[in-house]
Design brief:
433 residues, 0% strand, MFS_dom, 18 helices, globular, single chain, Growth Hormone, Chain: A, mainly alpha, membrane
């Protein structure tokens, strides 16, 4: 581990930061958008879901392209796409055009994070890989948090257009990303051994130039295999079938609970409890800030406790808190904020840990495809969750809403705790075999 790793983590992490920033802006702009276009809660849910549908498609496309053409080209292309589309949303005067831009932006948002996590995981060593990758991943919820902080001032004072215009800022990261080497692991998996050696030599050169001391290589016995493109069907064959089913179901349930609530909280506060927009946005800041704390805690604990225990227990505790919200916490906006903040401490941590875990359980040649499949299941949850909330706000009760989310989190925790494979302190090659 060296300063080069830190530099790579910061550069790619900055892209992930703005992914998180752009992803949640729609939640804080929604009260204004609903008033502008006279949207019911159900109609507003589809505006939010348009981004989730794009993210689902982006997750699948991003993984397929990342396994074919490399990690960094996909990260860079996704960043440019979601940044430009954010600017398009800022200047949209009609609802159909706004939704179209949001959908296309979602493709970029969905493709970037899973592939970026693959890159960081592939340049990490086995010892404390969980901490290294998750501390990088923490930048994503920090982006969510800053999005809520910025939105709480920009939306009431300048309007939602300026909020989306800020989404163009990531373009300045382009020169930094172009100077990073491609993942040596991916290059080797494609049979490009000369390029892999050149990339690794370049990394080692920077480490030595900065005063680092390289340890002696520890060769591993790896069976030779002809380079081949991963197929989606392989995720459901042999040892990977169980892993894929567990991952897909856990992603779906976690993102259903997480984004179903967070994307609607500002609107829920203003429409159901009639609090001011400023108060609603400040409540959302608290919930997101507590979630960031949960992400830091899981990053520090996951290498010691293990992936299986961390993820399953966090989902089970989140489920209990959501059930308690349904029983005692729906009487006021403040109570909803307190209970949702408590559950976000655990749900946010699972969202983060799933990226790490999914990168570990597949071999390099199909890693991005596996992560993208998990991400796509998560994006499906991001579509179903907000639509469910929107419908229940128009036709149901808050108690029913929180009971549903508690049951979904419970199912995810039981599935992961019962069937997931532990991966801590193993090399990626050991886990894949």
């Amino acid at each position: 581990m060296s300063r080069w790793h830190v530099k790579a983590r910061v550069a790619v992490g900055a892209v992930t930061f703005f992914d998180g920033f752009d992803q949640l802006m729609i939640a804080y702009a929604m009260p204004k958008l609903a008033a502008k276009w006279h949207l019911t809660s159900t109609a507003g849910s589809w505006v939010i879901a348009a981004g989730g549908i794009g993210m689902l498609i982006g997750s699948l496309l991003g993984g397929r392209f990342a396994d074919r053409i490399g990690r960094l080209p996909v990260v860079i292309g996704a960043m440019v796409l979601y940044s430009v589309m954010s600017l398009g949303m800022a200047f949209s005067d009609t609802l159909p055009l706004f939704v179209l831009f949001r959908f296309v932006q979602g493709i970029g948002l969905g493709a970037e994070v899973p592939v970026a996590t693959c890159y960081i995981g592939e340049v990490s060593k086995a010892h404390h890989r969980g901490r290294f990758v998750l501390l990088y991943e923490t930048i994503f919820p920090v982006g969510l948090l800053l999005s809520s902080v910025v939105s709480s001032w920009v939306v009431p004072h300048l309007g939602y257009r300026w909020l989306f215009a800020v989404g163009l800022i990531p373009i300045v990261l382009l020169p930094v990303l172009l100077r990073l080497p491609e993942s040596p692991r991916w290059l080797a998996s494609r049979g490009r051994l000369t390029d892999a050696d050149a990339a690794l030599t370049r990394i080692e050169g920077e480490i030595v130039a900065a005063g680092g001391v390289l340890p002696e290589p520890r060769p591993m016995t790896v069976a030779a295999a002809a380079p081949q493109t991963a197929r989606l069907a392989e995720l459901f064959q042999g040892v990977y079938l169980r892993r894929t089913l567990v991952i897909g179901f856990t992603w779906l349930t976690t993102f259903f609970a997480n984004y179903g609530l967070t994307s609607w909280l500002p609107t829920l506060y203003t429409k159901t409890f009639k609090v001011s927009l400023n108060t609603a946005l400040h409540y959302s800041i608290v919930t997101t800030a507590v979630g960031v704390v949960g992400c830091v805690l899981v990053a520090l604990l996951i290498d010691g406790i293990g992936r299986r225990v961390c993820i399953s227990v966090a989902l089970l505790v989140a489920s209990a808190l959501l059930f308690l919200t349904a029983a005692t916490g729906t009487g006021s906006a403040f109570r909803v904020m307190l209970w949702c903040s408590a559950s976000s401490l655990f749900v946010f941590s699972v969202t983060l840990a799933l990226y790490l875990y999914t990168t570990e359980v597949y071999p390099t040649r199909m890693r991005a495809l596996g992560v993208s499949f998990g991400g796509a299941c998560g994006r499906l949850g991001m579509v179903i969750g907000p639509v469910t909330v929107g419908w229940l706000l128009d036709h149901g009760t808050l108690r029913t809403l929180f009971l549903i989310f508690g049951a979904v989190a419970l199912a995810g925790g039981l599935a992961f705790g019962g069937f997931a494979t532990e991966t801590k302190e193993k090399t990626l090659e050991e886990i894949a075999s």
